[in-house]
Amino acid sequence: MKNEYIPFPSQVKEIIPHTDIEYTFRMSFTKDVKPGQFFEVSIPKYGEAPISVSGIGEDTVDLTIRKVGKVTNKIFENYEGNTLLMRGPYGNGFDIENYKGKEVVVIAGGTGLSPVKGIVDYFSDHPDEAVSTTLIAGFKSPSDILFKKDFEKWEKTIQVIKTVDSAPEGYEGLTGMVTKYIPDLPIVDMENTVFITVGPPIMIKFTIMEILKRGIAEENIWISHERKMCCGLGKCGHCKMDSTYVCLDGPVFNYAEGKNLID
Amino acid sequence: MGYQLSRKTADEVFGKLKERYDIFAPKLFQGEGCFSDTDIIRYGKIDSLDEIEYERRSDYSFKEALIAINETLFYFTEDETTVPSCTDKKLLIFLRSCDLHALKRLDAIYLENGPEDFYYKRLREKASFVLMGCSQTCDTGFCVSMGANQTDQYDLYLKLDGDFVLVDCKSEELAGYFQHLETEDCAVTADYVTENKENVTLPKNLSVDSFQNPIWESYGSRCIGCGRCNFVCPTCTCFTMQDIHYRDNSNVGERRRVWASCQVDGYTDIAGGNSFRKTQGERMRFKVMHKIYDFEKRFGYPMCIGCGRCDAVCPEYISYANLISQLAKEEA
What we know:
The complex is a heterodimer.
Chain A: E1 8-17, E2 22-28, E3 38-43, E4 47-56, E5 60-66, H1 70-77, E6 83-90, E7 103-109, H2 113-125, E8 132-139, H3 148-157, E9 159-164, E10 174-175, E11 193-198, H4 201-213, E12 221-224, E13 240-241, E14 244-245, H5 246-249, E15 252-254, H6 255-258
Parallel strand pairs in A: 7-8, 7-11, 8-9, 9-10, 11-12
Antiparallel strand pairs in A: 1-2, 1-6, 2-5, 3-4, 3-6, 4-5, 12-15, 13-14
Chain B: E1 2-6, H1 7-20, E2 21-29, E3 40-45, E4 70-77, E5 80-82, E6 90-95, H2 97-112, H3 118-124, E7 127-131, H4 143-146, E8 156-161, E9 164-169, H5 172-179, H6 215-220, H7 228-232, E10 239-246, E11 249-259, H8 280-299, H9 309-313, H10 320-330
Parallel strand pairs in B: 2-6, 6-7, 7-8
Antiparallel strand pairs in B: 1-9, 2-3, 4-5, 4-11, 8-9, 10-11
């Protein structure tokens, strides 16, 4: 019988720094994985942390990690030429098939861009497979912007609105919350438009209010929940909401179902 | 098959069982309660039938015989991980009807919800269960209301009856210990209670709208978030992963899982400082709704089995049983 708790070592292939505290770790991984799924990443003797997949390569998987806790601090100290221990992937992830042939709008806040980055990558690489693709990405300030190289690539093939909450004087980019850009989004066919939104709970709340105001059906909105997923296996209980285990049934939910999940 | 054994024969059988089984049962630990000069009844390994506390309900449940309070998942030594070995012996666990119903709930989480749990399964497969009947109700239990007062799902039923021991054996594995005995076969039926002092009405119309009921805040306002109700509950299964390293060699350490409580701070903390359910009222609602509403939505039967241990252990005298009945009235 398989012991699901035993992690496997994965080689750190490449490091892509975004900010002082947010790096993408390109890890060796050859099995199937979907955007929106997550791994339990650990440093022995420090602990495990759930980290979502922020990119999928031929024999790699990207994990964008923010240095904010005991485990992630250690990962930042200790990564060079090293291996991390991983378990997973866990969770349902996003199913690209749900979005093909539609007007796709992805709205992400901060590191919330990680779990949806695979979707943006996909439609940026295959722009013909969606009627249109728009990314609205919000960050706290210009120095918090993640995936700068990827933005350059995306801007060539899809609509990109990259905004910061506040910026020093002289900043040339867009400012304001992501919600500011929802009312004016060009939407041709409401019924054929899907929204995918990931970010801090408060951002998701206001973003969805704006989306619904546009007349989009709840069934056409997708969210991903960030919760404390200790085991990833439906056992430890920390991520449960109502009868739903975020680690098993999520973290990706259709909003029609996800709106009923109250902590 | 039922048997009536003399106490002497029963002790001999027990001696033989001990060779093959680690036997766990509720024991009285004198003077080891939370407060001075108080006792506690909890599970421990026993060497004779005399050690079993047969009269009173245990303060802690049987679950710690299957899910340790603090379990080492594996050891880290340099680049290797080593899984601790499991006991060669089989397990024999004495418990009551309510607890045997709770076992089904533990199985649901550890064997059916997501992939099977390696550590639970390897112990569970070794375990047989001995039902201790209840000839009278305990004080705070409401097993009758929850339909957990009776069971036929035991491997062995064992009743101490003066100079005799009555046994009903349903398990092939254990039958060999009794078949050869020179004893009269007799019909043995397990004792069970048909009435409790505490009766609970389960709310029938719960939904997410019930989250808004002020009852949560009213009961939660008295809660101090100690988590005792979770730790005595035979159906609570939550744990937290924990890594440690040894002080005298920091290259070596272990990953453990330790029991967790949804009533205690930190249960929902995520990276970056966010947490959910900050008030005790919200946590009370989360726990109670899991016990009587959302577990059932997922698995088809309520989680709570009405053992009443949570009410007996609460230092703030919060009655979960009263909460449920009041909720049933309000949500009718």
